[in-house]
Automatic annotation (TrEMBL):
PROSITE patterns reported for this sequence: HISOL_DEHYDROGENASE (PS00611)
Enzyme class: oxidoreductase
Protein's name according to its UniProt entry: Histidinol dehydrogenase
Alphabetical keyword list: Amino-acid biosynthesis, Histidine biosynthesis, Metal-binding, NAD, Oxidoreductase, Zinc
Family: Belongs to the histidinol dehydrogenase family.
EC number(s) recorded for this UniProt protein: 1.1.1.23
HAMAP family named among the record's database cross-references: HisD (MF_01024)
Residues at which substrate binds: S235, Q257, H260, H326, D359, E413, H418
Gene responsible for this protein: hisD
Record's cofactor remark: Binds 1 zinc ion per subunit.
Amino acid sequence: MVKIIKEENISDFIEDLQKRNAQDYNNVYETVDEILENVRINKDVALKKYTLEFDGVNIENLEVSPEEIEEAFSTIDPELLETIKKAKENIYTYHMNQKRKGYQFKPEGKDILLGQLINPIEKAGIYVPGGKAAYPSTVLMNAIPAKIAGVEEIIMITPPQKDGKIKDSILVAASLSGVDRIFKVGGAQGIAALAFGTQSIPRVYKITGPGNIFVAAAKRRVSGFVGIDMIAGPSEILIVADDKANPAYIAADMISQAEHDEMAASVLITYSLSLAEKVSKELDRQIKQLERSEIIEKSINNHGAILIADSMKQCIDLANEIAPEHLELLTSNCFELYKSIKNAGAIFLGEYTPEPVGDYFAGPNHTLPTSSTAKFSSALSVDDFIKKTSLIYYSREALKENKDDIVRFAENEGLTGHANAVKIRKL
């Protein structure tokens, strides 16, 4: 049964919630470091060894062939194909609005040129979970922003199924999104291949995409050698509801996150004890009807809660403190209330915008900051696949006019070589 927590105990719950997000990477680093080093040295041989060991598949050719992609288009459910195409268009349209241009300007009356150049990252690697699970939505959410940014080569890796193939929906989504090459490899070994390069898999400059704790640990280890997007923690949803909200909808939306895994957190904040009790009953009723009921029940019991605030203002204050990955506002004044939200990965407004709308179809990216990191980070976007380079030009006269200030700054910091680089020009 879900915990109903009153005001005096809310801070303790939030503290426990944030502790849950601190995954113990120390337990996997030894294994991950060994895998990274083995792939760095032995390349494809190591990849094939680990694919056999971890995925139970003996892969001869790591790269997905054009024939396999053609087969995926011929075997995929036609209705699912149309759904993927519609989602692709929505995601493309949304992310096109993020595309930015560089700029240049000359300060008035000065022979100075300043600016910023925008260039795409040349090679990006996308990790897509695979095997038993299949996430074509992850392909779309990572590849489309990269394509819009102008990435020249998009490399995708994903673990093979037991038959050595990649699920048709994954291949179709990759093809439609503009992925250039696809490889049948996953885990920490796949991250190593993208970071260091092998005979088959080219080295990339940035890696994006979610994975298990071994994938996350590998991304941590190679970060700095290559760029990474973020280290995602367990999934989470926070729902803020008033006394007019539908308890059945709330329970269903909490469950939609709880079914991810036992570490997922589903939390409701409301000032209505009556609503809280109705939602608790709905959770008990709905969980019994679902396939993943065992996982859902553990998630709700261990990390779920209904927090009883004293007012809607406190509901919003608590939401900003928790800074959730997904925030639903199931209130009659949601279009006013969202303006008070400072920290959230994505905000879902009203009772007909459940979180799966954003996961799959609406267009905004579903790769979101977890574990309260929405206080300082953002959803995956086109910006994650570009670089910004400063542009500076001073004429002789402009440097002469400003030389004393520059030299004074350099000498104050004890960097006489910096000062001399200006002085030597004898202006």
